[in-house]
Amino acid sequence: MELKEFFDAEIVPCVRADGGWLELESEEEDRAVLKARGECTRCIALDRCLRWAESRVRQALRREVHFTAVPDPFLWRK
Asked: Would you state the pLDDT for residue 74?
């Protein structure tokens, strides 16, 4: 299973259940950039969520990956 498939099937539903929205923007070797939207743009626990996602990838795909999230400024709400 590819990272994008796994991310969309396993990580995204958990994040969306909390009102967040993460999209896999790009992937290169052991690094992946995510676009953060919804509640993820202002969540104080986003770093912990990313570390959790990394651990899920390690467990399921036996692969090391480091996620970085970039907030989408057009979807910020005040």
From this structure: 67
Q: What is the pTM of this model?
A: 0.87
CATH number for the domain that contains residue 30? 3.30.300.130
CA distance linking residue 1 with residue 16, whole number of Å: 21
Within 13 Å of residue 6, how many CA atoms lie on the same side as its CB?
Answer: 15
Q: What is the pLDDT of residue 75?
A: 56
Cα 26 to chain centroid, rounded: 11
Domain span at residue 35? 3-73
Which residues neighbour 43 within 8 Å (Cβ) at sequence distance 6 or greater? 20, 49
